[in-house]
Amino acid sequence: MSKNCIFCKIINGELPAYKIWENEYFIAMLDINPAAYGHVLIVPKAHFVNLHDITDEYAREFLPFAQKITRAVMDVSGAEGFNLVQNNGASAGQTVMHFHAHVVPRRIGDGLSLSWIPKSQSKEFMAEMTEKLVKKLNG
Ligand code: 5GP
Ligand code: ZN
Questions:
Q1: What is the reported pLDDT for 28?
Q2: What is the spatial distance between Cα 17 and Cα 24, in angstroms, rounded to a whole number?
Q3: 52 is catalytic
Q4: What DSSP designation does 49 have?
C-alpha cells in the first residue's frame, strides 16, 4: 500500500467506490469520470506503479479477470466493442500512479478519440527498428 495513493485508499476502504467485482488480486469499479457508458477500471489490490512493476502472478491473473469484466460490461452497456486501455507514465496520460486498466465501451460514431494517425515508414527505418529491438531483447 502506498500512503497517498487514491486507489490504495479505495482498496483499504478509506474512500468509497462503485465496486462491481473483486477477487484476491483485483477490484473492478466504475471510473468516477466515465468516458463512456459503462467505463470501468481494473485495479490490483497491491500498489504497483505501472506495467513494469506488476509481478508475474498479477500479470497471469490479469487477463482472466479482465475478460470476466469486459464480457459483463459489453452485455450491460450494449456496446458494440470496447477498448482495454492501460496508460504508463505521465507522458502516456497516466494520472493515477497505481497500475490500472480502463474498459471503455465503444459504439460506431461515439466520437471518442483514442486514436493516432498511422504513418508509413521506409523499409530502411523498419529494418533498423527491428534490428535495435531484436538486439535489445536478445540481451
Ligand atoms: P489514467 O489517466 O491514470 O489512466 O486514469 C485514471 C482514471 O482514474 C481516470 O479515468 C479518472 O477518472 C479515474 N479516477 C481518478 N480518481 C478516481 C477515484 O477516486 N475513483 C474512481 N473510481 N476513479 C477515479
Ligand atoms: Zn496505490
A1: 98
A2: 17
A3: no
A4: -
Mutate to test the pocket of ligand 1, among 7, 18, 31, 69 (most ligand atoms within 8 A of CB): 31
| Residue 25: closest CA among 53, 70, 69, 60 | 60
Would you say residue 1 has pLDDT above 90? no
CA of 119 to the centre of ligand 2 (A): 37
What's the confidence (pLDDT) of residue 4? 93
pLDDT digits (tens, 9 = 90+) for 64-110: 999 999 999 999 999 999 999 999 999 999 999 999 999 999 999 99
* pLDDT of amino acid 139: 93
Pull the grid cell for residue 119. 504513418
The CB-side HSE value for 43 (13 A sphere, CA atoms) comes to 25
* Ligand 1 atom at minimum distance from 86 CA: 4
Which residue, judged by its Cα, is nearest atom 18 of ligand 1? 32
Instruction: Supply the DSSP symbol for 103.
Output: E
